[in-house]
Design a protein that fits this description.
The chain is of the alpha+beta class. The chain folds into two domains: 5-81, Ubiquitin-like (UB roll) (Roll); 90-156, Orthogonal Bundle (DNA polymerase, domain 1). The chain has five helices and five strands, in the order ββαβββαααα. Strands 2-1-5-3-4 form a five-stranded mixed β-sheet, sandwiched between helices. Helix 2 (90-97) crosses helix 5 (143-156) and helix 3 packs parallel to helix 5. The chain is globular and about 45 Å long. It starts with a strand and ends with a helix. Residues 6-82 form the 2Fe-2S ferredoxin-type domain. One of its GO terms (molecular function) is metal ion binding. It is an enzyme of class 1 (oxidoreductase).
Length: 158
C-alpha cells in the first residue's frame, strides 16, 4: 500500500500550522524540516532511543515513528513549547541546575519524558522515574544527574 500526500493542520506548541506531506511521513521530519523545531533529535529512527520524544495529548511519544496522519487533531508539544531561555520550564531549569547534560543529545527525550511523567504523577518515586526514563538512552552516563534533575523538578513544579 502506498502513502498519499495530505494537507493537514497541526497544533504544535499552541499554534496551528498547515503542512503538506505524505501521510506516513514521520512527525519528526515535519517538526524539524518544515517547522524548524530542533528540540526533537533524530537518533535511531526506530523509536528506541528517545531523542525524538515529543508530548502528544499529554503522552510522551517517539516522533520518528509517529506518522503525520496520526497527528491530526492532536496537541503536540516539543521542547521549544515548554519554556524560553529567559524563563525555562521548571523541568528545564532543574536539568540546568543539576548539570544533567554532557553531549546533550538525549536531553530532549529525557526532559519531555520527565515532563509527561510529572504531569501524570506530580511526586513520583525514584523507582517510577527510573522506570519512566529507562527507555531513553544516554551514552554519556549522566543518569544520576538526570535522576536528580527530575526529583528536583518534582519538588519545584507547582
Amino acid at each position: 500500500m502506498t502513502s498519499q500526500e495530505i494537507t493537514v493542520a497541526l497544533e504544535v506548541n499552541g499554534q496551528t500550522t498547515t503542512v503538506t506531506a505524505m501521510a506516513d511521513t514521520p512527525l519528526l521530519l515535519i517538526l524539524r524540516n518544515d517547522l524548524q523545531l530542533n528540540g526533537p533529535k533524530y537518533g535511531c529512527g526506530l523509536g528506541e532511543c528517545g531523542a525524538c520524544t515529543v508530548i502528544i495529548d499529554g503522552v510522551a511519544a517517539r516522533s520518528c515513528v509517529f506518522p503525520l496522519a496520526g497527528a491530526v487533531d492532536r496537541q503536540i508539544i516539543t521542547l521549544e513549547g515548554l519554556g524560553t531561555r529567559a524563563e525555562p520550564h521548571p523541568v528545564q531549569q532543574a536539568f540546568i541546575d543539576e548539570q544533567a547534560a554532557q553531549c546533550g543529545y538525549c536531553l530532549n527525550g529525557m526532559i519531555m519524558t520527565a515532563k509527561a511523567l510529572l504531569d501524570r504523577i506530580p511526586n513520583p518515586s525514584e523507582t517510577q522515574i527510573r522506570n519512566e526514563l529507562s527507555a531513553n538512552l544516554c551514552r554519556c552516563g549522566t543518569h544520576i544527574e538526570i535522576l536528580r534533575a527530575v526529583l528536583r523538578a518534582a519538588r519545584q513544579t507547582p
